[in-house]
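pinned: reference chain
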Amino acid sequence: MALLTLTSDIGQKDYLVGAVKGQLAQINPAFTILDISHDLSPFNYPQASYVCRNAIKNFPPYTYHLILVNMFEKKPEQLLLAYHNDQYLLCADNGLLTMILEGRPEMVIGLQLDKTQLRDTLYLVRVFGKAINDIIRGESLQKLGVLDTAYLEKNPLRPMLGENWIEGQIIFIDHFEFRIDDHAHNGQKLRLLESLMAADKSLIVKSSHLPSAFSFDNHSHNGGKGEVGELSDTWAEMMTRFRRAYEAKPNGKVLEDAIDALSKELDKNETLTKQDRDKILDVANFTRSECSIGPWLTQTGKEIIESLATTKEVDRNNIAGQLMDRTELVYRKLWCNCSKNEKLTLLHLAQDRLLSHNDPEIKPLMQRGLIICAPDIRLMNETFKAYVLAQCFIDVDESAAIQAAETQARSSSSLEPFKIPILVGFVAAVLFLLFTQKDLANSSWTLVTAATTGIPAVFKLLSLLQSDPTGHKSFNA
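pinned: its structure tokens
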């Protein structure tokens, strides 16, 4: 019984993967077929070679690996059957073979194609299947095709150096924060980085969390208590070898050009009053300010600005509603990636637009673009501000979590123990004046009322200037 694996860039949204298996079953119903992946990116040779190389080495000897990747980058003149380390690899003559093996195979056969046949995917699969079936029946490899045929070679993932040049590939690792609280999973990520760095690979790691957020032992999130584990030390050393960069903001020229085009279009409309024209441009500028904070919003803003030329009723609230509908999932991801203290900072900035310069959450939030200075400090845009307020006051779970963080911050405030004594003393002084100084009381009711009303604001302002022993700001509702 022959064991076959299938790897392709076909995808799984249509019939083709099933048809491929059907063709192989017609050739030999005893074939056992296992899928490795059918979601490889077309023309992505580094990805395909990485997936195949690391999967193939785990299979038993004499497994047949059908690799249907970039089969038609050029017109196929032959197919390749390679034997290497007791494994059979069957693929197109497109250079992928040497990238998978990181070198030349022990033996390679050129499988010839019938020029009278339509060379589509299913025909090529039948050629592969027939060759496998012939090997199982004891046919000599030399009789299957052209022995040691000439074939295309591509460089594996290692840099090539010249006197004044360097050629290589950069390995890009996305969503590195996946299962960020799983100690074992983070250990695997660390070992991956170590092995790639040891092989002198160029790496780019993209993560929505800072390196300090990754957990490697039971002490990592224990408020700094306990000993730091060996993996944490290794992680810290590894991070010194990376340069941290934050995603650049998009060029606002796309939205500026859209507004210029809109302005010219409005000038052609002779029936449009100056008041209506100014209103439309005001909404367009509002849209630009809302959508210039991230690349994910640039196209959305451009579409909305372009639509204003033909929109009959232009309303700023309506545009804000459209933006909220279209950006909800993006804002949810940004919000979920924030810690409780960061969410608390965002909430109070949305409510009061007041923050302490010692607040430890300000820097990471500004680096991620969630807080900006334009010129005063505020959330990145109005729709995100509305989303933050909605999450805190509509989502019960979020509200409870943030309230717990706020309660913890209050308990650590150095001002908290003195609030009640100060308030009691103030009220006692006012009552003393009211009952002992009648004339003063009659002339000072307005002043007393204003002072009493201002007490909560005074305490709130003082609280914003307080910090707990760990550097966290104390917030008060």
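why pinned: Residues 111 and 127 are 8 Å apart (CA to CA). The longest strand covers residues 78-84.
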